[in-house]
Design a protein that fits this description.
- It is a single chain.
- With 222 residues, the chain is mostly helical.
- The protein has helices spanning 11-14, 17-28, 45-52, 63-69, 73-79, 81-86, 98-107, 112-134, 142-147, 149-158, 166-180, 187-213, and strands at 31-34, 39-42.
């Protein structure tokens, strides 16, 4: 047993205190089962590297954990049917060797030549975001207005989309990770995951159809 457990659903309230707790856990037990998270917590470079290489008997499949918050199969089929159909096939839910095989295919779209094409745009976004911060009050949310905004705008451009997708992308990411993630998952958050998945399907089926008709220089042509 460890002397303290971390509740990641309270991470915003914890602030920098979470660093103290992580240091304590790393010293006491770098691999431990968290009752609050209903998951294994792995800290320290060596064990994390082992886990990512698939050398530890862990799984990234979150569906069994989601079942603990919605154990009735009939309720799952009624409330989150599309999540149940698709989540286990998503890259973030796959273990080796399937994860590595699909990741290799995906990385073709992120090769150095492709990334060099987007370097000027990334620099432009960084400059624009920094300039925007100058017009804000002396106190602002760095994570919200800088750390999230820069990668969000670059990612949507990589996918061949415009900045109108940025708010949707951020909502989709939040709904996916909140509904299928940590110990703070609730049925209501899982409903948000279902909603986000359906929105993503509608949006990207439209984009896929457009690229089948007219391929573009984005993820449709890695």
């Amino acid at each position: 047993m460890i002397s303290a457990d971390i509740d990641f659903s309270q991470i915003q309230k914890l602030g920098n205190e979470i660093l103290v707790q992580l240091d304590q856990i790393r010293e006491e037990k770098p691999i431990y089962w968290s009752e609050k998270q209903n998951a294994w917590i792995v800290t320290g470079h060596a064990p994390v590297a082992e886990a990512l290489r698939g050398e530890l008997p862990f799984s990234v499949n979150r569906l069994p954990r989601m079942f603990t918050f919605m154990p009735d199969p009939a309720e799952r089929e009624r409330r989150i049917p599309y999540v149940m159909q698709t989540f286990s096939r998503m890259l973030l839910s796959l273990d080796p060797p399937r994860h590595a095989r699909l990741r290799q295919l995906l990385m073709k779209a992120f090769s150095r030549p492709v990334m060099e094409v987007y370097r000027p745009y990334a620099r432009q976004v960084i400059a624009e975001v920094i300039e925007e911060t100058k017009s804000r009050d002396s106190s602002f949310d760095y994570i919200e207005h800088v750390a999230r905004m820069i990668p969000s705008r670059v990612i949507v451009r990589l996918m061949g989309l415009d900045d109108d997708y940025v708010p949707r992308l951020r909502y989709w990411a939040w709904a996916t990770l909140s509904g299928a993630g940590g110990g703070g998952t609730t049925k209501e958050l899982m409903d948000e995951t279902q909603k986000a998945f359906l929105q993503m399907r509608e949006a990207f089926m439209h984009e896929i159809a457009a690229r089948r008709a007219k391929p573009q220089n984005d993820l449709s042509r890695p």
